[in-house]
Amino acid sequence: MELSVETLMISTGGSRIALLSEESANLLGVHSSDRIKITCNTQEMIAIANIADYFPSNRIGLYRETVSALGVKEGETVKVLLASLPESLFNIRAKLHGERLREQDLVAIVKDVVERHLSTVEIAAFLTALSIHGLSTGETEALSRAMISTGKTIDFGPGPILDKHSVGGIPGDKTSMLVVPIVAAAGFTIPKTSSRAITSPAGTSDRVETLCPVNLSIGEIKEVVAKTNGCLVWGGSLELAPADDLFIQVEYPLGIDPMLLPSILSKKKAVGATHVVIDIPTGMGAKIKTRTEAYTLASDFVDLGKRLGLKIQCALTFGEQPLGCGIGPALEAREALTTLMGGGPPDLREKAVSLAGMLFEMTGVEDGRALAQDMIDSGKAMAKMREIIAAQGGNPAVKPEDLPVGPESAELHSEHAGKVLWLSTDDIVRIAREAGCPKEKGAGVILHAKLGDTVHKDGVLLEVYAERASKLESALALAKQLSPIVLSKKPEEKMILDRVPEQASHEKTFMLDR
Amino acid sequence: MELSVETLMISTGGSRIALLSEESANLLGVHSSDRIKITCNTQEMIAIANIADYFPSNRIGLYRETVSALGVKEGETVKVLLASLPESLFNIRAKLHGERLREQDLVAIVKDVVERHLSTVEIAAFLTALSIHGLSTGETEALSRAMISTGKTIDFGPGPILDKHSVGGIPGDKTSMLVVPIVAAAGFTIPKTSSRAITSPAGTSDRVETLCPVNLSIGEIKEVVAKTNGCLVWGGSLELAPADDLFIQVEYPLGIDPMLLPSILSKKKAVGATHVVIDIPTGMGAKIKTRTEAYTLASDFVDLGKRLGLKIQCALTFGEQPLGCGIGPALEAREALTTLMGGGPPDLREKAVSLAGMLFEMTGVEDGRALAQDMIDSGKAMAKMREIIAAQGGNPAVKPEDLPVGPESAELHSEHAGKVLWLSTDDIVRIAREAGCPKEKGAGVILHAKLGDTVHKDGVLLEVYAERASKLESALALAKQLSPIVLSKKPEEKMILDRVPEQASHEKTFMLDR
Asked: N or C, which terminus of chain A has less Cβ within 10 Å?
């Protein structure tokens, strides 16, 4: 059938979609989601058909991506035929029925995801099936390899190349901002890419961005690392394992994360990492709730690492409460700088020194922890951080107090005296986001009471920071309603954690950030 | 945030989608798939946000559905806010984790599907999870009720209201075209709605449409039934259980059918049926392959029927080969008429009389089969069919040979002599569709040899009909390649069914039609 092109100058986020009228679709025998082959002169392409009411029957609507891939102009005539469904879709169907997929099947799926030959409906079904059926180790390896080979890679020369990643899940975790300068100061290469917040108050990229640009090109990153041994950049636009970014878009509304392992390790492998520490925060307040779950995940990471040629150690870390006191991009960057300068909260210092120490010991250093501690005590880590900030285009002389926070702020006071029995990280995340995180970088929460701390009646539990008075007000109201910090004189006086359903129903949260 | 409306005069198939630039989305804290609240004067609505590159940051793109729901004009200013995710999405997430859903959870999902508050990604994940985890009887009932209550219903007055439905799966099954006039001729009410072919060569609506219009309004249907006791109409545009039509759109590319039971029975209940016979073709060539599977499905139907207040009997019918000889809309309509006139293939006559007989006996008739047979022998069923054709706007004097088939046709000959050992229904479906079915109504296949028949060397196995020579040629070539009819002198001479992978790989087929 010949149809005349109507260019729709809208982007579909990559998918190659063509609009047909119901009449043309009927004549072609095409249903919505069927594939059609569009031919224009010698150019051919396969697109996914969408059937639109009110669309002229002699036209075919092509979105921006399809127009440029095919190189057609408004009004040009193209030939349209029903095409067969892609082989990868049959692989997805097999997975829906619980079949094990072979390496070539997964390669076909990932390739078609990256080349936009699969619709979001089909990707959603695939990820749902993976989430329910789980993945075998072989499938996880094949997926990781497919995700690496369909993206770009960066070569930082001969190793060891060190890296660190958290599976995510506790707010205030700014450890990477310490581990990178500590490791780089000791002379090791650590090219750290990180993500922005999706469902959390701040991702590492959001924090670092208060100090210097993070949106660097691959060439710029190589220069920064050549100069300083390290970097702290946003990985989102580098097309390292780009399939993952497309998977995340679909996972986000569904609240599932079946690709955690291949997602993290494909990105490490793409930057040529040789030694990686994976942080698994474990506890009621974290993504991973129990030790059993954490040990299983850790062993899966180590196993997958072996298969991909990566040396991996996992750290199960205390995940019952936020790390440090500051939560929110600028508040966390302040705290990271203070800690690099020798101050800061003890849990953050301890965690950063421990993880950096593990990395050192993996490369043969005898007492890694001591070396890491020395990098802080000697001021070398802070000097290295300033080098990295300068190399990425920030102000190397920055002081913690230079970073703008607030300007609106208010305190939440305790109605009675007691010891902190538990903190709800979910609630603290909600309060910080209500205050404006992650988009408003000066917004957030400072905790004044953490597990085991003693609080007096009318004592400060937390401070809320916001860039606007209205946000401050709603975040403070939410904090009062949620009471995220629970006090008691002794544990045995406060045995009820929650009441169902009398208590205000809690939003079911899901942390996609990793 | 205030944005100015850009009206995109494209339809999205119902979903309320709004396009935002990345910049606006960032400022609002909106990710793709998040919900936004759009306010225009006093009108408010929730839409699903899509984030587009190259989209002006001061604009919001609204598709046709959203424009008309909100009543806005190009260039008008609207207020946009991040809205919370719909409750039904949390129910879907719970199902992804294998949780049982309560009636109110399923009602929320179905309501939001019909009101287009859920994206196709979210619906795909829901259907995938249902397909993998299965549904409890309670869930099936709740889904059916929700699907009924979100659609229209038709009241045909006091019962009994009879109905018949096939779960689908064998080609050439034109039984409904006989059961309806037989039942109506005996004085019972049988308002039969049916579907068009999706993956099969012909649906009942495609067949009947060669005789008379099938796209009637609810008012017209009531008139036809008042006049004739029966009808044979297309159910697709009546908005009876409209959720199902939206589910089918998503199920189609995925090749899954978790909603078979609620889909069929919600539509029966919506037309007020009181007594229903469900045909379950069972065999290698059918959708349901084994007796175990068929009995389980039958008992689920009976059970669900009880819960919905429907009397149900299921017929497990022979599903090893196509029914009758004609396959394709017009070829099947011809055969149905011939059979109503007392001729036709014996398997079709036998099946129609048996199923109609079951319906009669369910209402208290002692020998239902005899009554059904009498309706054919006396000519009453054929007279009733002519009444229905006339009432729906067709020519009541139509003769089988009046229906145009072909005009191109060719025979497939047997290379040797033997008895028909088995037929591949999948292959016959592919050949009929290659010939032009279901869109080209004169296209199709006539089988000249069925199970157990003796064929001489060079004898005719089947005839292919097509409306165009090119289609005939490719269908005939496919028939030669596939050899859908397998001959042998004795079964023990032909033990190999297929060779893997030396044989031409077979397309994995899936029958969504029900």
From this structure: N
Give pLDDT, residue A391: 97
| Fold category of A162-237+265-400 in CATH | Pyrimidine Nucleoside Phosphorylase; Chain A, domain 2 (3.40.1030)
What ranges do the domains of chain A cover? 2-83, 87-134, 162-237+265-400, 408-493
Catalytic site positions of B: 257
pLDDT in tens, B134-181: 999 999 999 999 999 999 999 998 889 999 999 987 999 999 999 999
**3 state SS for B154-166:** CCCCCCCEEEEEE
Contact A122 B253 (CB under 8 A): yes
**pLDDT at residue B378, rounded to an integer:** 97
Measured distance CA(A280)–CA(A295) in Å, rounded? 9
Q: From the options 3.40.1360.10, 2.70.40.10, 2.40.40.20, 3.60.20.10, give the CATH code of A2-83.
A: 2.40.40.20
Q: What is the pLDDT of residues A75-133, one digit of tens each?
A: 999 999 988 889 999 999 999 999 999 999 999 999 999 988 899 999 999 999 999 99
* Residue that is written with structure tokens 């990604």 in the block: B121
Q: Is B129 on the interface with A (CB under 8 A)?
A: yes
Span B423-455, pLDDT tens digits: 999 999 999 999 999 989 999 999 999 998 999
Tokens at A470, concatenated: 């209205």
C-alpha A119/C-alpha A89 separation (Å) is 10
- What residues of chain A lie within 8 A of the CB of B84, using their CB? 507
Instruction: Specify burial of residue A293 (Cβ count, 10 A radius: 0-12, 13-18, 19+).
Output: middle
DSSP state of A400: G
Name which CATH class applies to B162-236+268-400.
alpha beta
- Do the Cβ atoms of A388 and A224 come closer than 8 Å? yes
A306 part of contact set with chain B, CB < 8 Å:
no
CATH 3.90.1170.30 is held by the domain A408-493 = yes
Test the A interface: residue of B27, B28, B97, B128 with most A CBs within 10 Å:
B128
CB A11 to CB B53 under 8 A? yes
Q: What single-letter DSSP state applies at residue B400?
A: G
Identify the pLDDT of residue B505: 47
Q: A249 and B32 in contact by Cβ < 8 A?
A: yes
Residue B181 has, within 13 A of its CA and on its CB side, a CA count of 29
pLDDT in tens, B111-143: 999 988 899 999 999 999 999 999 999 999 999
Residue A50, class by beta-carbon neighbours within 10 Å (0-12 exposed, 13-18 middle, 19+ buried)? buried
What CATH number should be reported for the domain whose range is B87-134? 1.20.970.10
Residues B357, B381 contacting (CB under 8 angstroms): no
A contact residues 204-263, partner B, Cβ 8 Å cutoff: 249-250, 252-256
Residue A253 CA to residue A262 CA, distance in Å, equals 20
Amino acid at residue number A99:
E
Q: Answer yes or no: do B11 and A55 touch at CB < 8 A.
A: yes
Which residues in A lie closer than 8 A to residue B54 (C-beta atoms)?
9-11, 64
d(CA A353, CA A338): 14
Does the CB of A360 have a partner CB in chain B at under 8 Å? no
A90 contact residues in B (CB cutoff 8 A): 508
Phi-psi category of residue A276: left, alpha or beta, with phi > 0 → left and psi -120 to 50 → alpha: beta
Per-residue model confidence as pLDDT tens digits over B386-427: 999 999 999 999 999 999 998 999 999 999 888 998 899 999
| Cα separation, A339 vs B30, whole angstroms | 33
pTM for the full predicted model: 0.88
Of B433, B455, B167, B435, nearest to B319 by C-alpha is B167
